[in-house]
Design a protein that fits this description.
single chain; about 500 residues; alpha/beta; Alpha-Beta Plaits; VC0802-like; Rossmann fold; 4 domains; six-stranded mixed β-sheet; disordered C terminus
């Protein structure tokens, strides 16, 4: 907690109503987890706070009540957050005085009601408080309306103190993250897997992420950004890990050995297998996917059953009955939609006539054709990241540059035109970097682009903008000098001073 001379405001925090259904022992465990998580949430945002209270109600004193309330609304296990307008002694006259002072302007010209409740022993009833405070506010309001009030003034009397408020913010509900164990989310960066992760966290499950990379480092970066939103804004109390597995060799093995009509579901089996191997490392006891019945060919009920039959861990599918529209709506709420809609779709594995009704036995026969040693070796080379510890530069900079020219990439020269005429990479298209910034959305999204300029700095910026828009684009590290050295080490690709490309091997 930071030390400050600023005045403190008070927030009343109530746990999810679900807590009341638990035994006392379970409830204590959930409350300990909740306090741990909300403390982490406040500290993660550098907020000054003090926490008190127990059992049904907690109080958070803070110098930034608006920001604190916004953060607490994202903590699973919190049912409501109440900004307290006034605190008074639990005496009717004092409550009326405090209520009139706090709410006279709030009820001005409006229909209002007063609701009171008490905990403890008092020489008055809740109804007495409602009548007295209602009479005190009546001269300022249009009228008392107990059925459809525009403003409801609440008085929560707890033993010797009364808390007055007129606003209640809805919390996330659910159970504290970590109270129900850990699962591993198979994340692709699209809408579905991110929302599935959020839903499972809301039920108290801590998550790590495993990403089976089908599209290179720019794709990995896009998916890490989605996972980092979930980690930074919703995973309070935990430190999710992100496991990235290069699936290139796995895909090659699958394509060479299995029937194309089965590729989609064989791939899912392989991803489940990768998840199970990583789960042993992370301590997860279940896998979470973003699958929804009938959304794509691999997600028919028969195919889901066939895929799941090969897993040695439970498969949790929070989105099983969700429509796509509902999923996108939730993605917008949790803040991943803008990033997810820019993630490229890697559909090269989609066959013309995919199987839609596979049985576990036929899928087993396809899987038997594959050397699973390829999968184990891919998992052994897994890259691991602590999402909440990743800085912005760590998420961006390593993915902007390349030191090689990928096969099939389109090369864009962003040197001044005079420099382009003197030397350029074989077949490179010349474009001014600022023209490229304005026109890149006309380029084919399914191509890989390598950009270069004299120092590699301007093109790093352009590559960053293109990646954010869903393109796989890189700046050649070190700019033109480094690219010329690269070409000199590959003489057949070199270009002379005339600017004419030489013969490529």
């Amino acid at each position: 907690m930071k030390v400050t001379d600023a005045p403190f405001a008070l927030l009343m925090v109530r746990p999810s109503a679900e807590f009341t259904l638990k035994s006392n022992r379970t409830r204590r465990r959930l409350q300990q987890a909740l306090i741990h998580n909300l403390t982490d949430a406040l500290e993660s945002h550098g907020l000054t706070y003090r926490i008190s209270g127990a059992w049904n109600t907690y109080f958070v004193e803070t110098t930034a009540p608006g920001e604190a309330a916004e953060v607490l609304c994202r903590v699973a296990g919190i049912g409501s957050i109440v900004p307290i307008a006034r605190v008074s002694r639990a005496e009717v006259d004092e409550i009326v005085r405090a209520g009139v002072e706090a709410f006279a302007e709030v009820v001005q010209g409006k229909r209002f009601a007063v609701r009171a409740r008490r905990t403890g022993t008092h020489p008055f009833r809740s109804r007495d408080v409602e009548v007295a405070l209602g009479a005190g506010l009546r001269p300022f309001a249009q009228k008392v309306d107990l059925t459809q009030p525009e403003v409801t003034v609440h008085v929560d009397i707890q033993d010797s103190r009364a808390f007055l408020y007129a606003e209640t913010l809805r919390g996330l509900g659910g159970l504290p993250i970590g109270s129900q164990g850990k699962a591993l989310v198979l994340i692709s960066g699209g809408f579905d897997s991110a929302v599935a992760a959020w839903l499972i966290m809301r039920r108290g499950v801590a998550v790590d992420y495993v990403f089976c990379n089908l599209g290179g480092k720019a794709y990995e970066r896009a998916v890490i950004q989605v996972a980092k939103v979930l980690a930074d804004n919703w995973s309070y109390g935990t430190h999710p890990r992100f496991y990235s597995i290069d699936f290139t060799d796995v895909i090659i093995e699958m394509r060479q050995k299995t029937r194309s009509s089965y590729w989609q579901i064989v791939l899912k089996r392989l991803m489940y297998g990768a998840g199970s191997l990583v789960a042993r490392r992370s301590g997860a006891v279940a896998l979470v996917t973003g699958e929804s019945i009938g959304q794509v060919s691999s997600q028919t009920l028969k195919n889901l059953a066939a895929i799941e039959a090969g897993s040695d861990l439970p498969i949790l599918r929070p989105l099983l009955t969700y429509d796509k529209e509902d999923i996108i709506h939730l993605a917008r709420r949790i803040g991943t939609a803008t990033l997810s809609e820019r993630v490229r779709e890697y559909c090269a594995l989609t066959p013309d006539h995919p199987v839609t009704g596979a049985s576990p036995e036929t899928l087993d026969r396809e899987m038997a054709k594959i050397d699973l040693g390829v999968l184990h070796r891919a998992v052994e080379r897994v890259e691991e990241y602590d999402l909440r510890s990743l800085s912005t530069s760590a998420v961006v900079l390593p993915y902007l540059f390349t030191e090689t020219i990928p096969s099939g990439a389109e090369i864009i020269d962003c040197q001044p035109e005079s420099a382009y005429r003197q030397w350029h990479y074989p077949g490179a298209r010349h474009m001014d970097p600022w023209d490229l910034l304005k026109q890149f959305n006309q380029l084919d999204r399914n191509r890989v682009y390598v950009l270069y300029c004299p120092q590699g700095l301007q093109t790093a910026y352009v590559a960053e903008v293109m990646q954010r828009a869903g393109y796989e684009a890189y700046s050649f590290k070190g700019g033109t000098p480094a690219l010329r050295t690269y070409c000199e080490n590959k003489p057949a690709a070199a270009v002379g001073a005339s600017g004419q490309p030489g013969e490529e091997a």
